[in-house]
Design goal:
10 strands; 646 residues; 3-stranded antiparallel beta sheet; 22 helices
Length: 646
């Protein structure tokens, strides 16, 4: 689907779409800008999901989920109210509160299709035994104290848990309303009704039909998707823990737990950065958005790699992570997107001509990144060390054989290799200087020489009123804070990797290909799948190709510069000499991606094929060892027999 067809289809959608989100859709098809699916506008949301959406769930599953919630939460919450009812009944004057707690306890045993109402006709469900105002205030104080001691804390914990799991947000809201009613309402005015006609005659405070609703995954809080908003407390907690480690050297959790906490916290950080970039781009113009994309598009990866390069000894981890990034962007992201979209749509189409432009840039990227490896493999040398060499005579005793055993092949130390110093290093610097030119040439084409192609569409997309969810100042603050947090987490991840290698027995190859490459790209993966589910498979493919292109044309040159400046005295500094299997994996990824881009249509079968190729390559890297194994090698050299040699 080309850009104009996407714009025409977008205009036929709901007119309530925020103008910034319309502009964002136009930006998604422009070279050099980050493709983003999440909404940017501050359109008011209803606190509950629309009725039409609530009726789409499978009724059998809803009934089962309701039972599960009662088994997990409802029974003990009801017991707390029964206990509170008994305590208030002992005071005699607190009988209205006791009756109130008893009714609420029975309500919590099965809260569905019931109405909590506040009577507005002046009648009371419970008769107050005392009219003395002082006694009433004393009873209310006792009620608040017992309520806070018995109910408040466990209810608050259950409310937080229901909110965290997203689909159970309806019950989190119900618990919040129950706590609010207990503290603010007169218990004599509260009644439980099961008949809608009775309830409609009074003020309905709470009404619940089911405990789960998967549509809450669309929910936004403070301009953020609910899932990433829920991860924010974990990020804050982890940052505090990392600061404690840096100050006192004390770790709260086991090494494995802290390592995975760091990786999990990286996911919302990448979301916050991506959301801020898209928001600023939509509020300003194409050029500024493109420049921000160049600067912050792969910020988390670059910070992590920078700390690894500075520490030293992690050159292989960085290179394998780059390889894993190519495989992820060209195989995993398109593959999962095609499978997700193929389940909903039998065939999805895209513009193969537009995809061809990305294919050319991919080839430029691969030639630049892999040229030093091919050059060194063609002209480089290796050390051959053997444990033992013995001269043995041949049968005719005219020549001898030199037999060597326990030989090991290793690369020559780059710091002392003349070919690396005078050939490969200079080639790397030349490539690092010229690769960004290809990227900025695309920006020049978009924003200067052919800017008229986009001017009219941009004006159309800017029509409308509305305010952004995040202002520009707030976006700048988000970028600054997220960058700082990413630096803290990256430093901790690098410090933990050495310990993880020993504990898990995994080499830098597999860690780089899998965890280090995948975790920072989770947000991109989610965006790509969402685009595919909306029948915008072209944007899903562009996310993958754009990620690979930006990594090769911007990130790799940056890493070359960092390797030359952060740790120049390292014995084996960061370089662009990849293993031959990494070259094979990258070439297979590019060839496969370019091949499917020529057809102009996809389905779940093609996506499955990409996913299978990705899994085979990742499994292959699992067996890569950090050190090359010792091999028993025989070197046979025939020379004239000399008795002195025997």
């Amino acid at each position: 689907m080309d850009r104009r067809s996407r714009l025409s289809s977008a205009s036929s959608e709901d007119e309530s779409v925020h103008p910034l989100d319309k502009k964002k859709r136009a930006y998604n098809s422009v070279f050099g800008l980050r493709h983003w699916e999440h909404n940017l506008g501050d359109i008011p949301q209803s606190p509950s999901i629309q009725k039409g959406e609530t009726t789409t769930d499978w009724e059998g599953f809803t009934f089962f989920a309701n039972i599960v919630w009662v088994v997990v939460y409802g029974w003990w919450m009801a017991c707390l109210f029964f206990i509170l009812s008994g305590l208030m009944a002992l005071t005699v004057v607190g009988v209205p509160y006791a009756n109130f707690c008893w009714v609420f306890g029975k309500y919590l045993l099965w809260p569905y299709e019931k109405y909590i109402i506040e009577r507005c006709d002046g009648s009371r469900q419970f008769t107050e035994p005392c009219n003395n105002e002082i006694v009433k205030k004393m009873v209310y104080c006792l009620w608040v104290i017992l309520l806070a001691c018995v109910v408040l804390i466990p209810f608050a914990v259950s409310m937080a848990l229901n909110w965290f799991f997203v689909i159970s947000i309806p019950m989190s809201k119900m618990i919040y309303q129950l706590i609010k009613i207990c503290f603010t309402k007169n218990p004599s005015d509260i009644q439980i009704a099961t008949d809608y006609n009775v309830a409609s005659a009074h003020d309905v405070l709470v009404c619940t039909y089911k405990c789960v609703n998967y549509f809450y995954f669309r929910y936004k809080v403070a301009g953020m998707n609910i899932v990433f908003f829920n991860l924010l407390p974990f990020v804050i907690m982890r940052v505090c823990m990392v600061i404690v480690v840096n100050v006192n050297g004390y770790r709260v959790f086991p090494i494995m737990g802290e390592f995975f906490l760091d990786l999990i916290c990286i996911i919302p950080i990448t979301f916050y950065i991506g959301n801020a970039i898209s928001s600023i781009a939509s509020q300003t113009n194409y050029m500024l958005g493109a420049l921000l994309n160049v600067t912050f598009g792969s910020l988390v990866d670059s910070i992590l790699f920078a700390f690894a390069i500075r520490k030293g000894g992690f050159g292989d981890l960085v290179k394998y992570s780059i390889t894993g990034g190519f495989m992820l962007n060209l195989l995993l992201i398109p593959g999962l997107s095609m499978i997700a979209g193929g389940i909903k749509y039998p065939n999805q189409k895209f513009n193969p001509v537009a995809a061809g432009v990305g294919s050319i840039l991919l080839w430029i990227a691969i030639v630049g990144v892999l040229s030093p490896t091919i050059f060194y493999e063609a002209f480089g040398r290796y050390n051959e060390e053997c444990d033992k060499c013995v001269l043995t005579p041949t049968i005719n005793k005219t020549t001898t054989h030199l037999v060597c055993t326990g030989c090991q092949t290793s690369e020559i130390d780059f710091a002392t290799d003349p070919l690396f110093e005078h050939g490969v290093r200079k080639l790397m610097y030349f490539i690092a200087a010229i690769l960004p030119l290809a990227y900025f040439t695309g920006l020049l084409f978009t924003f200067k020489t052919h800017a008229h192609i986009f001017t009219q569409d941009e004006e159309e997309e800017e029509e409308g009123d509305g305010s952004p969810a995040w202002s520009i100042k707030f976006n700048i603050c988000v970028l600054a804070v997220a960058t700082t947090i990413a630096g803290l987490l990256a430093d901790d991840i690098v410090n933990l990797i050495e310990l993880i290698e020993d504990e898990l027995g995994l080499g830098q190859a597999f860690l780089g290909i899998s965890l280090i490459a995948i975790i920072p790209a989770v947000t991109e993966l989610v965006n790509a799948i969402k685009f595919a589910l909306h029948n915008q498979i072209a944007l899903s493919l562009e996310i993958g190709s754009s990620g690979a292109i930006q990594a090769a044309l911007i990130q790799v040159p940056l890493l070359v510069v960092l390797g030359a400046t952060l740790n120049p005295d390292e014995q084996n500094p960061f370089n662009l000499i990849f293993s031959l299997f990494s070259v094979f994996a990258v070439m297979i990824s590019v060839i496969t991606f370019n091949y499917i881009s020529q057809d102009g249509k996809t389905n779940y079968f093609i996506g499955t094929a990409l996913l299978v190729i990705y899994m085979i390559l990742v499994a292959s890297f699992f067996f890569v060892e950090n050190k090359k194994p010792t091999l028993t090698t025989y070197f046979i050299q025939e020379v004239p027999l000399n008795i002195k040699d025997l």
